[in-house]
């Protein structure tokens, strides 16, 4: 993509060009994340067919474990890669890698390797998903990094809230595509082939058409000017190549660690509801009805991010306060669900699940998008714009690990105290996660965050004095 002469942010032509490119970037990155969920969900939808083909449940279980493990660890790595290399290349490689992994699963199934050598077949299938998790992990951190470069802090909440609907759109498309393929009598392998080809082609779109930041298309925004001014004041060169900061420096950015751990507790609540609601509801409803009823929770999650983003924009970006408000509403609803879900009329149950979806989905969606972008704009960065991927990767990775560990407690809690113990456990998770945001909430309420924090060092500097005491408090 050729560069044009930089235009000033006050030029009307530059403003129109910026808005046009913003829409393009929004669309491409939205589809990027939808593609990731498209391929994941299509694979999930054909598990029954894989079992019929000889890939037993033990293999599928270990494939899921391998995927979740590398997806969590990969979030840390891919976020860092997105700050070190062109984001469109990292995203493109991730999508094309998904194509290769889905293709590997089809090839291994067609070869019948599990029938000839079960141990070797076990290894191949699990390894395919092990690698797939790394490729898929590029979606969240790196796409968020691109979006953060195009949308300034003021007013980005609503935009990111709308943008986080990508995952649900991908899941819906996957369900429709799989249903279409099966009902038309096509081989079930097409449910892996179609998302695989689509991922690969869209990866090429990223490589050739996605600009990582306004400067790539010759636009200098007001935010770029401020960042350049901060770089000059901290000894850098305006418009020069920025050094990235390491994991430890990113962790020392005020509130990053608090949000990362808090997100883990919130994500645990989300995962517990997502994985266990159908099973819990099946105690009082038939399995099909339980699945339909539990889907209202997922439906509620879609507008959740939009609502949190919009409301936090209205309150001048005070996202921690809005997130805490949602969590304070969620805790008593979880108690109501624990006490009365068995006797609640179906209509009331549907409404409750929809509201719970909004209250859980809103904070989860906005923390990994707008909040991460806000943190990466902190004054302690000194104008460095190559940190958002690392910050988002830390939040995503920490959240996934915490949630995975927490899910291990669900089964023992059911055995020890029944479902009531599980719901009380989730209430405790909500309270703990909200409490971890206490320092940030206090700062937002008192509005005394400093704008004169010491800049974080670049990777090339050997010393680090950290942020100021006031900022770290």
Automatic annotation (TrEMBL):
A GO-annotated cellular component: endoplasmic reticulum membrane
* UniProt-listed Gene3D superfamilies: MFS general substrate transporter like domains
Its annotated compartments are: Membrane
Region labeled Disordered — which residues?
Answer: 452-473
Give me the stretches of Polar residues compositional bias: 460-473
- The record places domain Major facilitator superfamily (MFS) profile at 1-447
Organism's domain of life? Eukaryota
Short name of any one Pfam family annotated for the protein:
MFS_1
**What keywords is this UniProt entry annotated with?**
Membrane, Sugar transport, Transmembrane, Transmembrane helix, Transport
Its record classes its membrane topology as: Multi-pass membrane protein
Which protein is depicted? Answer: Major facilitator superfamily (MFS) profile domain-containing protein
Q: Which organism is it from?
A: Diacronema lutheri
